[in-house]
Amino acid sequence: MAIEVKIPPMGESITSGVLAKWHVKDGDIVKKDQPLFELETDKITSEGTAETAGKITFKVPAGTDVKIGQVVATIDEAATAGAAPAATSAPAAAPAAPAAESKSDAQSPAVRRLAAETGNDPASVAGTGKAGRVTKGDMLAATTSKPPFPVSAPAATPAAASAPAPSPLAASPSPSGRQTRTKMTKLRQTIASRLVAAQHEAAMLTTFNEVDMSAVMALRAKYQDDFVKKNGVKLGFMSFFTKAVVQALKDIPAINAQIDGTDIIQNNYYDIGMAVSTDKGLMVPVIKNCDTLGMADIEKAIADAAKRARDGKITLTDLEGGVFTITNGGIFGSMLSTPILNAPQSAILGLHAINERPMAVNGQVVIRPMMYLALSYDHRLVDGKQAVTFLVKVKQLIEDPARLAIGV
């Protein structure tokens, strides 16, 4: 009996997407719950899995625009037993192929993407990771002697080398090799349109301040080991800033509001978005009810959301409902930036690199670990005084973190 493989529902707001990649070959024997394909939509990227075991027959190639509920393949349950011997005899004709495929399958999405973009086979690259695994750094190092590819720019996921036909999403090098043209993913197109819309529709302004990270760094150094033993997760900077933002939102509620036509919607909850950079573009998973969470709960939630975003396991629900966003360009070395609003939110906080700088303290010049903060906000709703007061409040709470414990 042939079972239809359909594009699964992704939420009411998602009606279509792109079948970006097949994880199996046409005619393969697949197992129940085995990942079959990668679906890219304008909001998230997800995987489709097999509902049953059997022989799969493709109905559409990789790179095809598909609709929710569309049949993209069939699985013949009766063919499982008969096709098994053929599957076991194939390696005899090409003994080297399975080993290479196995090593490739073990690589991270970033390594597979670089392999597709540069043409470098991970099997030929010396791995420095655990158990000899090839890392993103190994792949980048292996390409230094070849023409550059846009490895840092978010690009569409190419079709797997095993796909039955070339994918429209695959990179197409020019004859000279000096350029590579790649179709934008649905997600990247949406990110682009939303960023442009945010700049066109809001009266966006950015105010800056700097914060001395000495106190927070001292707390982390003093309690890190005990924190890890008790909670199984490291105490990072993001939980401090999240708690500081929540307190500042309570003090300056105008920042926790948004415009809807001619109405102002005042949010009385504290779901904070955390910008996460992934191979497919920027995502902002939302940590719910941050005002009720402890530091350990926040750290665990951030780590979990970031991992699922980078692994392509994020859901639409994870991205909805945020009232404020924190983005940390400092992890990439950014000194200063003007973050763009995450509409319909009215403000976003940008964190940056921590650098030791000479500072005047009590009439003396001392060296302190300093970070620039940037708050971009919608001036239609938020006045300059409110924005500056909010940022000063965050600065006070970070420089004197005991205030977080007593709520002042």
Structure description:
The chain has 408 residues and is an alpha+beta fold. It has 2 domains: 2-185, OB fold (Dihydrolipoamide Acetyltransferase, E2P); 202-406, Chloramphenicol acetyltransferase-like domain (Chloramphenicol Acetyltransferase, 2-Layer Sandwich). Helix content is 31%, strand content 26%. The chain contains 10 helices and 20 strands. The protein has a 6-stranded mixed beta sheet. Helix 7 (237-251) packs across helix 8 (295-310) and helix 7 packs across helix 9 (384-399). The model is unreliable at 84-105 and 144-168 (pLDDT under 50).
Describe the structure concisely.
The chain is an alpha+beta fold and 408 residues long. It has two domains: 2-185, Beta Barrel (OB fold (Dihydrolipoamide Acetyltransferase, E2P)), CATH 2.40.50.100; 202-406, Chloramphenicol acetyltransferase-like domain (Chloramphenicol Acetyltransferase, 2-Layer Sandwich), CATH 3.30.559.10.
